[in-house]
From TrEMBL:
One of its GO terms (molecular function) is O-methyltransferase activity. It comes from Desulfarculus baarsii (strain ATCC 33931 / DSM 2075 / LMG 7858 / VKM B-1802 / 2st14). Transmembrane segments: none annotated. PANTHER family: O-METHYLTRANSFERASE. Keywords: Methyltransferase, S-adenosyl-L-methionine, Transferase. This is Methyltransferase type 12. InterPro entries: COMT-like, COMT_C, COMT_dimerisation, SAM-dependent_MTases_sf, WH-like_DNA-bd_sf, WH_DNA-bd_sf. Residues 127-309 form the O-methyltransferase C-terminal domain. CDD domains: AdoMet_MTases. One of its GO terms (biological process) is methylation. Residues 13-79 form the O-methyltransferase dimerisation domain.
Length: 333
């Protein structure tokens, strides 16, 4: 990967790039985005209905119009085309929780220099499962999974009668989506008790109550059940160090039936050519937020599988092309 040649303007744009990010987050956090998703309104009407300072609201709206997030005529403001669903918290296509999850993490990212200097996490948010930050986290997981599940389901070789474990599946969007994709699939989510209410809500909203099971447990200490034909492990390994990864992949392999497959979905890191940079930046997010988490290469994930006794290990590459997310598969002999 050749180093690019930078100029002063490009450095300045990168240095102040967070201004636009924070404007988007404020649009969501103040309720302005949700209100505008219902229809156009003037700055004064928006400020009055949401209890915002008129000057502050006006300045944010003008900035967001400059960013292309808003349009409108005269004194009125409206969300730009395509954002009516994406910024509406009540929309099935909403990214509201993802935006708010990024907002929740912003103070910790400001302490990145301390994390780099110490090699330790600096996150200061509470971990209560009923906190707004935790609800945003589970909601963000669900929003991203809704986008990706239809893309990955055809790759897994699912058939009626198969048993699938969604390990560390949180709100269970993948298990629920895979069940919808392949009727007759017997899917189960395994996660901590705090994730179960989010799973129950998602199952009910999809009309799949009782169709997908939920095992309450800690994958570090509890038996996973099984045997399963497929174990789906999505975006879990990056939150822990290599030793825990080896243990978890080993437990997943033990829970597989002969011929069963472990599928790992991760932000796959390419250390030699980390461009696009999302996976490398996400690794910094793990430095900030976890004790041992980091980004892993496809080779490292495959090695975890090999050490667990799995074969036919294969990295399918980014899915879709250009995405920071990829799949690694291992098969139990």
């Amino acid at each position: 990967m050749e180093a690019r040649t930078w100029n002063a303007d490009e450095v300045i744009r990168l240095a102040n790039g967070y201004w636009g990010v924070f404007a988007l987050q404020a649009l969501a956090a103040t309720g302005l985005a949700a209100r505008l998703a219902k229809g156009p309104a003037t700055a004064n009407a928006l400020a009055a209905s949401l209890g915002l300072d008129p000057k502050g609201a006006d300045m944010l709206l003008v900035a967001c119009k400059g960013l292309g997030l808003l349009g409108g005529r005269g004194d009125g403001y409206a969300l730009a085309p395509g954002l009516e669903q994406l910024l509406d918290p009540d929309s099935p296509d909403s990214l509201h929780n993802y935006i708010m999850h990024m907002h929740d993490m912003a103070p910790d990212w400001a302490r990145l220099p301390q994390a780099v200097a110490s090699g330790r996490p600096v996150a200061q948010r509470g971990g209560q499962h009923d906190s707004p930050a935790r609800r945003h986290f589970y909601g963000a997981m669900a929003e991203l999974a809704r986008m990706r599940a239809p893309l990955v389901a055809p790759s897994l070789g699912l058939r009626p009668g198969m048993r699938l474990l969604d390990l560390g599946g949180g709100p269970g969007i993948y298990a629920l989506s895979f069940t919808r994709f392949q009727p007759g699939l017997a899917a189960t989510v395994f996660d901590l008790p705090g994730a179960e209410p989010h799973f129950r809500r998602e199952a009910k909203s999809r009309g799949l109550e009782g169709k997908v099971g939920y095992i309450v447990g800690d994958y570090n200490n509890d038996d996973l059940g099984g045997p399963y034909d497929v174990v789906w492990l999505s975006q879990v390994l990056h939150g822990v160090g290599p030793a825990v990864c080896r243990k978890l992949v080993g437990k997943a392999a033990q829970a597989l039936a002969p011929g069963g497959a472990l599928w790992v979905q991760e932000f796959v890191l390419d250390r030699r050519n980390p461009s696009p940079p999302f996976a490398a930046l996400f690794a910094l997010n793990m430095l900030i937020n976890t004790e041992g988490g980091r980004g892993y290469t496809a080779e490292e994930i495959s090695q975890f599988m090999i050490e667990a006794g799995l074969g036919q290990c294969e990295y399918s590459g980014p899915l879709p092309p250009g995405s920071p997310v990829g799949l690694v598969r291992g098969v139990k002999p």
